[in-house]
Design brief:
six-stranded parallel β-sheet, nine-stranded mixed β-sheet, binds 6-O-phosphono-beta-D-glucopyranose, single chain, alpha/beta, globular, 497 residues
Length: 497
């Protein structure tokens, strides 16, 4: 929550939010609902305007009806006044068609606000047209602040995936830097806006209890899972060109890995945190062609080819798994098993750290003495943290059993958790870049992913078909089995309230 003086500043600084790609999934499902929630919480400037821009012809009224479907039913009475702030402008930002309408709409709003307004551009468009779109913002002078207000420079928000590979990510960065300097560019990975993801930081560095155990002497391995039960839905055209590895592992999962594995930053500044995350990502060992064959899995759910806008013989993966190592003193030898997929058993994102089995001599002869401890950080749903301990079962036998200690958000806190996009959009308005990622992090992540994508594109790892409602490609079980381990099922573990 911002401080009172920050809220006062927000209220008195007029701003306009231009959402390019306003009819797309991201804008409808995430951006407009988040803006509405900020509006309801009175956290938007008093003079505020949303310019919704997309290619389809709509009147502002039609467009508002589309947005209405995505807004929550709570506080319905606030919707009409929120809608008054939205103006729809049909245009093609990649083809440079009608962008002058945005300039006109901003000028009109500046007349109403009787002064300069902050301009925030949200590029909620396909990464394949981002370069052209940014170039066209520049060509139309939209990167400039209004006259004589150079300190109120426009901000631009870009979304993952940042390009398709290292090369395209660098090209996008080049174009962005032609028109915007670093502190004007906000690169969103919405997982960083999730309350539970931010809590990883507090859990690790505000609890002295864990720091001495957080290394390869005690931790056997780490599993990170982002599973979804939904399929590609209406995003077939985008998803088929992207795949699970680029869609989730390159960004969300590598960010989670970085937060779990990073060294403690010197302070809480955005710069220090980014430096430490970057260090870890740089230290991820790049897989050799041989390792790619034995440590990665790609799968596609049965029925994927029948989804809308999917190429008939598509080889795009909807499930991806990889085993990675971090080459530094703390993590040498500790495997990080990462997996993601669509149409799996359920929706869950979790990080599980499994401790080593110490094989203590004093428990020889006991039943089940070696149940390794685990720490589960459940990002969603049933948000919380669970620790698996071993306890002696009451009774006359010497039998051990795993028991759980849990902290659950629902029972520990009354305060509702803000949505990730709500938090991130508020941070953009406040000018706080801590929860946004740097170009360097993006590039280092692509260096990990590119060799895998290349091998997969040559079919060096066969694509397997998996049944919807399962945990995905069975080969991923095999990889852990060969290492003498197994996947721990996150949904079953904690905070089942
Ligand atoms: C997006 C991906 O970044 O994250 C989607 O493009 C995925 O494919 C979504 O469905 C998952 O986000 P969340 O917040 O629902 O876990």
């Amino acid at each position: 929550m911002p401080t009172t003086s920050e809220i006062e500043n927000i209220k008195k600084s007029p701003a306009t939010f231009v959402v390019f790609g306003a009819t797309g999934d991201l804008a409808r499902k995430r951006i407009f609902p988040a803006l509405f929630k900020l509006y309801k919480a009175n956290l938007l400037p008093t003079a505020f305007k949303i310019i919704a821009a997309a290619r389809t012809e709509h009147s502002s009224e039609n467009f508002r009806a589309i947005v209405d479907e995505s807004l929550s039913a709570v506080d319905k009475e606030k919707i009409p006044s929120f809608f008054e702030k939205i103006q729809y402008v049909p245009l093609d930002v990649a083809e440079d068609k009608n962008l002058t309408e945005v300039t006109n709409a901003i000028s009109e709003f500046e007349k109403e606000a009787a002064g300069c307004v902050k301009r925030i551009y949200y590029m909620a468009i396909s990464p394949t047209i981002l370069e052209e779109a940014v170039e066209n913002l520049g060509k139309n002078g939209l990167h400039l602040a209004c006259q004589n207000h150079n300190d109120n420079k426009p901000l631009v928000i870009v979304e993952k995936p940042f390009g398709q590979d290292l090369k395209s990510a660098q090209k996008i960065a080049q174009v962005l830097s032609k028109y915007f300097v670093q502190d004007q560019i906000y690169r969103i990975d919405h997982y960083l806006g999730k309350e539970t993801v931010q809590n990883i930081f507090a859990f690790r560095f505000a609890n002295e209890l864990f720091e001495s155990l957080w290394n390869n002497k005690f931790i056997d391995h780490i599993q990170i899972t982002t599973a979804e039960n939904i399929g590609v839905e209406k995003r077939g055209a985008f998803y088929d060109k992207t795949g699970a590895l680029r869609d989730i592992i390159q960004n969300h999962i590598i960010q989670l890995l970085a937060l779990i594995a990073m060294e403690e930053p010197e302070d809480s500044s955005s710069k220090s945190i980014k430096e430490k995350k970057l260090e870890v990502i740089k230290n991820i060992k790049k897989l050799t062609p041989e390792e790619i064959k034995t440590s990665t899995v790609r799968g596609q759910y049965e029925g994927y080819l029948e989804e809308e806008n999917i190429e008939p013989n598509s080889k795009t993966e909807s499930y991806a798994m990889t085993k990675l190592f971090i080459e530094n003193e703390r993590w040498q030898g500790v495997p990080f098993y990462l997996r993601t997929g669509k149409r799996l058993t359920g929706k869950v994102t979790s990080i599980i750290l499994q401790f080593k089995d110490r094989q203590h001599k004093i428990f020889e002869g006991f039943e089940n003495p070696n149940i390794p401890n685990t720490i589960t950080i459940q990002i969603q749903p049933n948000e919380g943290i669970g620790i698996r301990l071993t306890a002696k079962k009451p009774g006359l036998t010497s039998e051990f059993e795993p028991v759980a200690m849990e902290f659950c958000y629902k029972t520990s806190f009354d305060t509702p958790q803000p949505e990730a996009y709500e938090r991130l959009l508020l941070d953009v308005i406040l000018g706080n870049q801590s929860l946004f990622i740097s170009q360097e992090e993006i590039e280092e992540s692509w260096k990990v992913i590119d060799p895998i994508e290349e091998a997969w594109s040559k079919n060096e790892v066969p694509l397997t078909v998996y049944k919807p409602g399962t945990w995905g490609a069975e080969e991923a079980e095999e990889i852990l089995k060969k290492d003498g381990r197994e996947w721990l099922q996150p949904i079953l573990t904690i905070c089942k309230i």
